[in-house]
Amino acid sequence: MTDIEYRQLMESSQQKAQRALFDEYFAYVFAIVAGRLKGCGSREDMDECTADVFSEVFLYLDKNSSQNGELKGVVGTIAGDDTIFILVRSESDAKKLSKKFRNELLSGR
Questions:
Q1: Tally of domains within the chain
Q2: In terms of residue numbers, what domain contains 97?
Q3: DSSP letters spanning 46-102
Q4: What CATH number has the domain bearing residue 103?
Q5: Distance between CA atoms of 96 and 92, rounded to whole angstroms?
Q6: Rounded to a whole number, what is the largest CA-CA distance in the chain?
Q7: pTM: predicted TM-score of the whole model, two decimal places
Q8: What is the pLDDT along the chain (109 residues), one digit of tens a residue?
């Protein structure tokens, strides 16, 4: 899906545009999330994080009017960069992660 296609769908229906983007990129985002959370997150964490990534993508696209092309790069960047930070937003979530994994995240791997 390109930025232009997404914007055209947005003109007719925000819900349709978001659903189309979700349907096209769900497997891609979930693969990124699952890869980043492998060994430290449950399936429920992965599902929740995937949904949060899409929320971040939709907010980003609402604020940034043009991406000039494919949205896969934007979606992938947000999924990769935000996965861990979405998971550990709250202190209680951060405590769920192992000390070693937290250290890896903070050091940028």
A1: 1
A2: 3-107
A3: HHHHHHHHHHHHHHHHHH-----SBSHHHHHHHHHHHHHHHHTSSHHHHHHS-HHHH
A4: 1.10.1740
A5: 7
A6: 48
A7: 0.75
A8: 888 888 899 999 999 999 999 999 999 999 999 988 887 778 888 898 899 999 999 998 888 766 667 789 889 988 988 776 766 654 455 555 555 555 555 555 4
Q: Residue 90 — φ and ψ, nearest 5°?
A: -95, 155
Cα–Cα distance between 86 and 14 in angstroms, integer? 24
CA 32, distance to chain mean position in Å, is 8
- CB neighbour list of residue 73: distance below 8 Å, 6 or more residues apart: 67
Give Cβ neighbours of residue 74 (< 8 Å, ≥ 6 apart).
57, 60, 61, 67
Taking the C-alpha atoms of residue 105 and residue 85, their distance in angstroms, rounded to an integer, is 9
**Residue 106 Ramachandran class (φ > 0 left, ψ -120 to 50 alpha, else beta):** alpha
